Amino acid sequence: QDLWVSEDSHFLIEQLSFLSVYVNRWTWILVLFAYGFRYLNQPKRWIAYSTAAIFPWYILHQTLTVILGGTLSPYQLGPIVEPLLVIGGTAIGCLVLYEFVIRRIPLLRPLFGMPIKTAPKQPPERAAATPSAA
Hints:
The protein is mainly α. The chain has helices at 9-40, 45-72, 81-102. Helix 2 (45-72) packs across helix 3 (81-102). The termini are far apart.
């Protein structure tokens, strides 16, 4: 009697099939991480912009999604049009509110987790190199 392999070979084939499926999935996930590390692990302007925008977008998208979903729901636009409008409206609303309201109004910046923008410091004026003749 073999203790390691069942007499029913279907069970073993099924388990190997599941193993190959999950190894394949994890391999693709690791490939995506590797591509991200390779191509996104460099300083880029849009990454700095996105890093600053992520928390305000997170806060805004919840509210905009509920408002748009509640507003569009009575129109019964269907399972394709309504979600597309909600997703598109949420993305556009987040972009517009972040870019033209939150970033530009200093009072709102700390409410959305952004540092208060201060006026740039003026360099001190230099004294004249030569004494003035009087």
